[in-house]
Amino acid sequence: xxxxxxxxxxxxxxxxxxxxxxxxxxxxxxxxxxxxxxxxxxxxxxxxxxxxxxxxxxxxxxxxxxxxxxxxxxxxxxxxxxxxxxxxxxxxxxxxxxxxxxxxxxxxxxxxxxxxxxxxxxxxxxxxxxxxxxxxxxxxxxxxxxxxxxxxxxxxxxxxxxxxxxxxxxxxxxxxxxxxxxxxxxxxxxxxxxxxxxxxxxxxxxxxxxxxxxxxxxxxxxxxxxxxxxxxxxxxxxxxxxxxxxxxxxxxxxxxxxxxxxxxxxxxxxxxxxxxxxxxxxxxx
Amino acid sequence: xxxxxxxxxxxxxxxxxxxxxxxxxxxxxxxxxxxxxxxxxxxxxxxxxxxxxxxxxxxxxxxxxxxxxxxxxxxxxxxxxxxxxxxxxxxxxxxxxxxxxxxxxxxxxxxxxxxxxxxxxxxxxxxxxxxxxxxxxxxxxxxxxxxxxxxxxxxxxxxxxxxxxxxxxxxxxxxxxxxxxxxxxxxxxxxxxxxxxxxxxxxxxxxxxxxxxxxxxxxxxxxxxxxxxxxxxxxxxxxxxxxxxxxxxxxxxxxxxxxxxxxxxxxxxxxxxxxxxxxxxxxxx
Lengths: 285, 285
Ligand SMILES: Nc1ncnc2c1ncn2[C@@H]1O[C@H](COP(=O)(O)OP(=O)(O)O)[C@@H](O)[C@H]1O
Ligand SMILES: Nc1ncnc2c1ncn2[C@@H]1O[C@H](COP(=O)(O)OP(=O)(O)O)[C@@H](O)[C@H]1O
Ligand SMILES: [Zn+2]
Ligand SMILES: [Zn+2]
Prior knowledge:
Mean pLDDT of chain A: 96
CATH topology of the largest domain in chain A: Nucleotidyltransferase, domain 5
CATH architecture of the largest domain in chain A: 2-Layer Sandwich
Catalytic activity (chains A, B): D-fructose + ATP = D-fructose 6-phosphate + ADP + H(+)
Strand order of the largest sheet of chain A: 3-2-1-4-5
Strand content of chain A: 15-25%
GO molecular function, one term (chains A, B): metal ion binding
Bound molecules: adenosine-5'-diphosphate, zinc ion
Protein name (chains A, B): Fructokinase
Radius of gyration of chain A: 19 Å
Structural class of chain A: alpha/beta
InterPro entries (chains A, B): ATPase_NBD, Carb_Metab_Reg_Kinase/Isom, ROK, ROK_cs
Oligomer: homodimer
Keywords (chains A, B): ATP-binding, Carbohydrate metabolism, Kinase, Magnesium, Metal-binding, Nucleotide-binding, Transferase, Zinc
Order of helices and strands of chain A: EEEHEHEHEEEHHHEHHEH
């Protein structure tokens, strides 16, 4: 008996199988093509195992309300062919076992809480700053979910005084994701984030927006710790700038833990999601 | 046996006693002076009753984390004499009965959920737009509380293109409260909200900020319904404008219930807090 996990992303799927102690037995990457083609490969991977349960962390937006018809579906996504695809139903039809269905970032938050940078806490916010910006929340050890999956990357933000970039979100232009995800960083500076010199002024703008968002999440959700992941967060100096900006913007209004402990980097780089999904599978079997 | 409730505000305290069916037996208003003087009057009111439990909804910020030393305290408040006052301890020393301690807006949210505009739901956000802006959240029928009490009135917002008002928050200048609470509305227009003509351009700015905040709360908390209260929300046309703006700003990104049902006005005008506090008292006795 073993646990299965799927981290479903817009460019690739990661599928893994682990033993009862959550030791990973096998892991594969599947490019995200059409749902049919992708699932063919998912099935051919999992078919070799006697699975007890599966945990899924999926790109979104997704239907997460069990009382709604779209539960288990991928909703309106720019990813061709996936809008209104019945992800959970497709999987359940093949494997008659318990499945946990949540967002990629919720799964990552869960992974970080139990085995990563938020170990020992009962709540955390996980925020990825990569191709997009997305957040997952654990409260009292449980995935925090309202009537829809949170899409906290799309909040509007106060402008940095030196920033006139129009923003890149197809829905909102200058929401957080539109101003501070990897592609907007690149568009504003004309250079990819990984190639941008540390002293480029764009990093101040970047830190300003991320810090502001962390302030908003703090004032609404008040998690014990905020874990940052994603490609853009590979920059040490950015993390330092974010912490400084956060302190400046909060202006001492609400007491938060020491910023070095409150705002941290992921403890399971690029693995929080798949490990969180395995951990979620374990919870229901 | 009866239940007691305190709605603690910066200008006045409302104290109430209700019977086992939550029918209010007596209610008084006490002006907020010094903690000592105010509590003298609170005690003299409650002493006449055999109380089973007390529910408190207090102005803030307050210490709401039972694991911290400041639990039950009023924290840094501009209200003279109240910073670091041990509210809960003072009450507990006098009455050795169960007490529920939460923010004024959480109590109001609870009241609205069980007996007001959010009846029949299991989650709601209550937002007051009055002298300040504050929000309370119920999730799964319980007060939602992270490590600190939420102070969601102080999130930063994207500027309305026609608004150059600097903002009035002593901590953040142009946070939501600094730009859209009653006093800022008055400062921007030069006229009190209650006297402002319906066609004054300031209402568009007002609606823009409130709607934007509701979008942020939706994307982070995703409640079933948002209940708006407070003096400024006495304006019918403002509620309509907020709904329109909310729809525009969301740009269809996340599915939310029909906006007429999703964004509503309080069902217990000026009473949500005290009724919520009574209901909370009932939960622990
Ligand atoms: N070291 C780095 N510094 C800054 N930006 C980076 C770095 N590495 C990757 N990025 C940016 O992060 C984005 C990709 O994010 P990533 O988290 O790797 O993938 P995804 O979000 O698609 O899962 C790209 O915009 C890329 O330019
Ligand atoms: N009908 C109204 N229209 C617009 N603004 C109003 C109205 N009534 C009161 N206000 C404003 O609301 C604020 C007071 O809010 P209120 O909720 O009554 O009190 P508080 O927040 O202090 O408990 C003041 O700024 C006042 O100008
Ligand atoms: Zn957006
Ligand atoms: Zn403020």
